[in-house]
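Reopening this ticket.

The earlier resolution said the output was attached, but the attachment link was broken on my side. Pasting everything inline this time so it's all in one place.
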Amino acid sequence: MAVTITKDMLIGDVLDMDVGCAEYFFEIGMHCLGCPASRGETIEQACEVHGTNADELVAKLNAYFNK
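Inline output:
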């Protein structure tokens, strides 16, 4: 079953699908994944706060989930 990650998805929902994808959040400085507040943010919101490109992260996540 193919998974499509979008930048409007909640970080917590993505991590619940496969916690192994956390490495991609860590790569861009999102080390707060255990914080309840971060799990309720969208990928786009978190990328904005961390000054990174949401589309690039989504592309990496989609490659991870669809390999």
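Reporter confirms the inline version is readable. The radius of gyration is 11 Å. The first helix runs from residue 11 to 17.
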